[in-house]
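Readers outside the structure-tokenisation community will struggle with the description of the input data as it stands. For illustration, here is how one protein appears when written out as sequence plus structure tokens:
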Amino acid sequence: MKNKRIIFLLFGLLLSFLLISCQQSSTDEYTSWKVYRGDKGSNAYSKLSQINRENVKELEVAWTYRTGDSKSGTSIQCNPIIVGEFLYATSPALKVFCLYAATGYKIWEYDPFSLGEGIGGKNRGLTYWENGEDKRLFYNVLNELKAINASTGEPILDFGNNGAVDLLDGLDREFDRETASIKNTSPGIIYNDLIILGSAVNESYGALPGHIRAYDVRSGELKWTFHTIPHPGEFGYDTWPKDFYKTGGGVNAWSGLSLDDKRGIVFAPLGSPTHDFYGKDRKGKGLFGNSLLALNAATGEYIWHFQVSHHDLWDYDVPAPPNLITVQHNGEDKDAVAQITKQGFIFLLDRETGEPLFEVEERPVVQSQMEGESTWPTQPFPVKPPALVRQHFDESLVTDVSPASRENILQQIEGYTFGDIYLPPSEEGTIQLPGFRGGGEWSGGAYDPESGLMYLGVNDMPHMVQLIEDSPKMEGIGEFDDLKAEGEQVYRQVCTACHGEDRKGNISYPSLVDVKDRVPLTDASTLLKSGRGMMPSFQVLEEKKRRAVLAYLYDLSNEETLALLPLTEKVKKLIISKDTVKRYKLKAYKQLRDQDGYPGIKPPWGNLCAVNLNTGEIEWKVPLGEYEELTKLGIPPTGTQLFGGGVVTAGGVIFIGASRDSKFRAIDKDTGKTLWEYQLPFGGYATPATYESNGVQYVVIAAGGGGMQGTESGDYYIAFRLSEN
């Protein structure tokens, strides 16, 4: 009898333990923020409700942390992760730091450039893994995946080679290491003891391939590789020209990954193949370009794909990790994948098969007249949900914020072709709407599992697209063949904050309009590398991009630049010939804007949308952000370009920065009404995080600015809580 009582007692204890474990497991879902975008399903949702629509007006700053390392042109796009009482995030200079989540007090900091000055770069988040006392952070710096002790901030030296894996290894391709680049801006994702990564590569001729790869979290050993441009014998190989895998690049998951742990499926949103806007060298449907790809997370084996655009000519990358959700479909619960696109679509797909849950139509599109181009005859259009942005442009949509603005835009578009979405690029020039900044963009959508609503910020602005002949061709050196055009792009990214878009400078920074008459080219080259005075060092910027900036500023041809600036021996060997094979490239990345910098289309220019994924209907859409000077003129809030995502909570609130006016807002998730706003010191071009520490709910956002043209760079993380008064 006594033994029976002991057995019964032990059984009861075991049952209690199991119940507690289950409760902990279930309550942990959507209550912590240990993963980029909140959970592995990329839903940016929290069950926390201490802060709600009734009391959100009582929010106040809980703490502020400044990284102290911002420079002209830098930004912070990081979505912090919170593990227990610790918050982990990155700085503009790509430092990693650990703070007490309740106070913002710094515990440690890791500087990847401690042995030499660096300028940093984009980073959107970190990956956390633990097993007992072994707690690790992973993130990307330049061409490396680094492993850091989450408790101490020290590199884990037995991971890879002294704490890092070289991502240039194992690419199955000949290339020059001195000019090659893999800058993975988005974090990897953990499946068991694997960290799975996409990559960010350049988008010009000669780009590296976008393999999906998995590494052992302890050793850094490469465990599997999936070729997004298939090799001979692999599914999809026949959708490309023969042996395209040897030279083709891109088709990369630069925006991050989502994971179904239960099924062991990793989902990779893929970009376009190179060159983005001209496809003579890549005729065919081109799998798995511009596709959502489902792979076996343990082995990397192909499961299914869905291509959102065929033979892409518009830089319509799949821009964000998909949301893994459960919807009410045909009267039953259905596990699904919701993929946003730059085109302004949401494709809702069966999670196990990739089959659309709402009908998708293949509709004819305009065919290209460019020499050698072969446009795919149709493109996929989901019947539901409807497009979230305008997909047709004509003169009736030209801006009317003022008569001068309208006249300016009409003059700019004279001679350009415009019309429906998927109008192919041309030498004469086309107006592309949606532009290649979206529609949807890298921040993705926030999904509320209770209501079935997705909340998504979208841009609604056109781009000017014009192709020019790419001559001479310099085989093997990638972006060197785009010197001046590439240089203009780099200048706008890293130089405009100091020297201005017009290169005229200001009281603190000199004009660069006549720099070629004042500063010898070789001196300017040295200055870019080493810096001087208020001029920072750009040593970490690839040689090809420094060279491209100089070509732009000094108005040099490729031949002049290459002749005047010494090349490495490896690069010299790669310059094969000025062959006569005609090909084309994009003249410049250019949004259609008026003389005052406002978008050239009638407002709204940026919207926050609520979409019911159970029904496929848009519940509401409101402009997000404003230009106060236009509001004062009696123009209703226009919305602005958006750069960053939102978080939705069980408290009925959406928290989002993203807008050009640098405001952080709390929005009623049922109506779209703004309930609270706070003026950030710099743009909040990142996705916030919400978490609980010591029984108190916090919301934190990076305010680093610099992510949009002409916006000032900063170095803030700001956390909010309800007032204690």
Summary: The CA atoms of residues 50 and 697 lie 6 Å apart. Residues 471-582 form a domain with the Cytochrome Bc1 Complex; Chain D, domain 2 fold (CATH 1.10.760.10). The mean pLDDT is 88. The two ends are 59 Å apart (CA to CA).
